[in-house]
């Protein structure tokens, strides 16, 4: 039976793996240079300070070496990517205004339907630009802003200039610098003091062309006592040449606010997904990252929360699935910089067919941050003997009056577990599915219902698809 | 035709021979007690009949209603109407007993038109109603079925979880592997009451046990004594009393005499 467990999980991409013939308004030539960065800035008609920011970031990018820790990035050739594609001239406020072929893409992905059902706002990005944006009118009246980052730079310069690049500066790492130089699209969310956004806001990112890089930039600001839940989804079709996705997400959670950021990335298995996500949480604020990594060839992503104010709270909940040829190097980072801050990290990973998952995490407690509580739990499930799972938990504790817990398990689905479930009438693949769904249940239950159902469907397809 | 017939069965586990030419027959409506010291092969018989991949049949056959089931997978055997109440049920984190049992019933419903399957609930509403009735009988609280399978269950709760599944799945032949071990007398009575309440002419039960204690509450029609991979003595309930008085030594002596 152990043998039969092999080859059981293969992500079903049929829903996502389709390509569209779309004529682009503008497409940069391959490779990265000062000219390309200037061109992007020109097309965007940006203020000078942003142009300067990009050029400075390019310098930093060129100077910084590739990271030598984590996943293998040696096959990345920065000269081969296309850094900017402008798919359309204008952004729609209704789906009818979106070019037909692009609209159909998002319809196939179920975005307009989800919007009608349970979202308060939607942004849809195709290649480098956001092609659609909407926000419920009552939220607009309350002063909530949900638009694409490019528009925000033009229309809300004061807020953007104040926060942009403050949480993740270009100096942070090579890919943050790359994003800062060539960023395009992404979401801008601003929730004024005391406003609670009752339904989630969602952005959907789609790469369609081959060898294209997508570098969206997202900035979320929740003022004092505000609440917002932001969801992000992303897919791409499978091409023979690799694509690169390198996003930056910055969250500022002011005192007493609550921000939840949920993402389930389902990139095709030829995408390098190298993302920097970071939040700062001030006094009594609560930031949650709910992070699912199913697709991509390589993912390096470690959502972080800097707990800057007394009593601030962070939760980072993640799952990673790695099949053949995939490496999910994911984790979490928490900096306890203030007293009585709490954090909770739960990481679940599944590897199969030689896939590799790594948990890489840091919990840091700074001197003076007394009364800190932190728990870390990492569970890895390996479905065959070819797959691999590693855990790299780092702790830097500079204060004594703290409570830190760490727990890690690595397991295989046991023959006895499958036998037990089968002895009641479930087939082997049904039994396997059930165990895996049970394993990721702590994650799935945190997703909005429709997403949880979608996730469960994907996992079921993985298991049942390859049996026999 | 017997419901379940085991013929000259030789079984090995990890290369070690455990069953050595075992013959055994059980019919619907009968209750058998299978007794014997540790290591005599009682549980091996149950696991082999249910189709655990680690238990390798070297020789002999197992027939269900006249047909060999050796090539069938555990789930296919379950759908025929075989059931095993585990001595040590597994834990499945994140999967509630409620969901699991409903999936199991749906899987059974899918496959067969047998009279057994016809008795299974067809809608989740009927399923829940029946489940709640049975939980009450087992003196369990409803919360129990919304917890993950086996996780944090006490020994007694695990036994009851197994009996509950038997009661819901309505098998034709059920093996109960030490349903009494680790139970206090009150729990034992509850388990016995439920087993007695599901007794019917369509169900054959094989109870594996070390002790006669449970047999005071569930009266067997037949008692078999296993020693070293074989059934060495079969008879009626009177064997139990003799065993209780004289221990397995008596069996060893009598079988040794027979061998002479």
Automatic annotation (TrEMBL), chain A:
Q: Name one GO biological process term.
A: iron-sulfur cluster assembly
Q: Which Pfam families match?
A: SUFBD_core (PF01458), SufBD_N (PF19295)
The protein depicted here goes by the name Fe-S cluster assembly protein SufB
Similarity remark: Belongs to the iron-sulfur cluster assembly SufBD family.
Highest taxon in the source lineage? Bacteria
Extract the InterPro entries matched here. Answer: Fe-S_cluster_assembly_SufBD, SUF_FeS_clus_asmbl_SufB, SUF_FeS_clus_asmbl_SufBD_core, SUF_FeS_clus_asmbl_SufBD_sf, SufBD_N
Q: Where is the SUF system FeS cluster assembly SufBD core domain?
A: 205-439
All copies of domain SUF system FeS cluster assembly SufBD N-terminal, residue ranges: 134-202
Automatic annotation (TrEMBL), chain B:
Concerning SMART domains, the annotation shows: AAA
Q: Which InterPro entries match?
A: AAA+_ATPase (IPR003593), ABC_transporter-like_ATP-bd (IPR003439), ABC_transporter-like_CS (IPR017871), FeS-cluster_ATPase_SufC (IPR010230), P-loop_NTPase (IPR027417)
Name a GO molecular-function annotation: ATP binding
**Keywords assigned by UniProt?**
ATP-binding, Nucleotide-binding
Give coiled-coil spans as residue ranges.
none
Which residue intervals define the domain ABC transporter in the entry?
4-253
PANTHER family cross-referenced by the UniProt entry:
ABC TRANSPORTER I FAMILY MEMBER 6, CHLOROPLASTIC (PTHR43204:SF1)
Q: Which family is this sequence assigned to? A: Belongs to the ABC transporter superfamily. Ycf16 family.
Q: What is this protein called?
A: Fe-S cluster assembly ATP-binding protein
